[in-house]
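Annotators were shown the component list below and the corresponding predicted structure, then asked to write short factual statements about the assembly.
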Amino acid sequence: MADSGRLPPKRRQITLPHELIEAVAQQLPSLVDLLSTALVSKPWFAACVGFLWRKISCSSPECMWERYRKLFARPPRLFYDYRQAVQHLHVEAAVAWPAIVAGSPKLQLHKVLTKCPRLSVLKLDCPVVSDDDLWVISTSCRQLRALAVVSSPTEAHGRITDEGILAVAKNCAQMRHIRIRIVDRSLLTERAFQAVARAWAGRLRTFALEWVQARMGGMGVVGGGGEEDAAESERRIADALREIIELNPGLHTVSFDWPCALAPTLAAAAASLRALQFLRVAHAPDPVPVAAIIAANPALRSLSVLEFDSTVDPTCLLLPLLSASPATSPSPLDSLDLDGVGFLPTLLPLLPNFTALTHLRVSPSRRAAALHRHETDAVLSTVLAVLPNLVTLDIPILGDGPLRELATSCPYLETLDVVDGRGITNQALILLSKGCPSLSSLHLGSAASVTDQSLVIVARSLGPTLRRLHLPFGAAGRAMAGASGISPNTLEALATFCPNLEALVNVPVATPFNKLIELLPRMERLNTLAFLAGRDHDAFEARAVLGERLEEVRRACRRLRDCWINE
Amino acid sequence: MFHRANLRNNSKNGRSQVGQNRNSKKKPVAKLTLITEDNESFTVCKKVAEMSMFFKNMLQDTEGIPAPFIVPNVSGYDLKKIIEYCSYHCLDTDCPNDNDSLRSRRDRKIGHWDETFVRNIINKDGDPVIDNLVGLTKAAYFLDIPGLIWLMTKSIANTIDPKPIAEIREIFNVPVPSEREEEILQR
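Structure shown to annotators:
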């Protein structure tokens, strides 16, 4: 770094052209760095401010958005009207679904968004806009290119019906990507889908229609009428959806999780879509059309089939990809997410044919995996040996075997979830940390025999690469009983060797408080911290004590956003 | 992005510079002689020179290889480094370019060779680090070499990444703004 002792006495100011400051700003990894860069001087500020506000994402809408709203509400007092720079807005849902529907905040988004002339991507993960808001937003942000909305069944929390979608279809001619999630499906009828089909015919690239089941008594009012009416309306919706698909053969991302008219829609997709790269289907009543879509799109890169009927053999989905592509050029499939599949022994042997796989998530029922424990691990080990490109892996791993295989054959692994790995030992974990130097996120879950011994070495060998670590909860529980488990040594090693650690979960509540206050501030980038309390009496007391002093912990860590105690 | 605008200026610039060489004999040899502003001369292959959009456009415009070409605004040291970079990367197919998305530009990692390359620049006869980096960045920007611009800006970003404002000001020798100015920025 600048060796001030050697500086010539009169050093001239180093100036960079505006475009180059912008290019540097693009490379900065976090907003905090960007902010300190922006505050260096006026020319730097002018170059950086656009990036600072370009993308807004708030994870807990209640408090975060309130701050943004206050800021945006008084532009004359600001040096720069930040709203000019906003291009992406993403409101995430912090809590699980049903709770969000019941307690969604009123963000009054439309008031702010009318003054954002460059907004092109609006992603809302919770129901915060209503029909009227959508109309206001669509008239003022006509350049919108991507929209994701959630509609709740109640008027109070942003209900979107046909009218809202019609307004967007009428006003936003540039739309390429659209994703609609809805709780009460009777709110959208064929009118909305016809409008979508006609407004952006031939131009849509992403179309996602998802039904979210929120369990709330008496809220999901399904339109009355007899069975015949229902069949008739389903037929009309199926026609409209088919029209969307037929008019947009260029769609590359499709997600269907829609309870009515799914079968004819999937059949239409199989007949006309040829450029698909990302496919997500949930609750499909019949695997045949899904397999037909897959067969028609051999260039598929990402496949997610969720809530699959477990009586159907999942291999029927993957076989078309294998037969469609010649042996010389293997399928480019790099992401596979199968949920609710209980046939590990039949599915796993197929995977070695997809050598391009980088993200693999197969979640069979936990019980099935545990029953076939040794078989699963053995098959998995042979599969992993031929998938050298793996980056993400989330599959039930129970013992050491697959971990050893990962260490020798998957050097690019970045995310590993071994939440079921009860039998994982220190030795395997140490091997893993040596063999997969890119590992940035590690979820240890129920590994009961993992102790300080390996965790310290993991911290030391992964070093700055490690960003998220879930400590094993089994060991944390035992630590409180006085047995060897996770002691402050692990935290010390993490604080010393892992400067980029962002999330640390399952820290035992029994860790001495003065040690915590000493070590946590040294983890400069930590933004998520979770403690783990056991069930016994000591843990209960420790939990009570820590609960009272949680505020002190928050104050000690500069960037800490979320901090809580797990049971 | 910004290279495009720059490129137009550059090609215009280039045309006027080489205009006088138009009438000289066009040789089909794939070598190009470059003379920097401090009178150092370099001979490079056409393929290497074409890593630079500036030279590439110039070669297209002149439909041939001009006689020794004077490169303004670039010092001998910088050009030597640029040629070193271009010779290594001229056969690469996945160089960073303007069409990359912001995220991929940010998440891309510096390769092993590039890392050594940057370390050597930093260690050049004990000069303050950032001067060399910035000098080369500007030269790369002038010659419009997307891959090198990416590498240099990334290295600068890495230099200032975890630092507080005061330290960044010290590195770039930016005068500390008056309190009034600072207050305005803080808002």
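Statements collected:
1. The interface with chain B takes residues 1-4, 6-7, 11-14, 16-17, 19-20, 22-29, 33, 36-42, 44-45, 77-79, 524 of chain A (CB under 8 Å).
2. The first strand of chain A starts at residue 55 and ends at 58.
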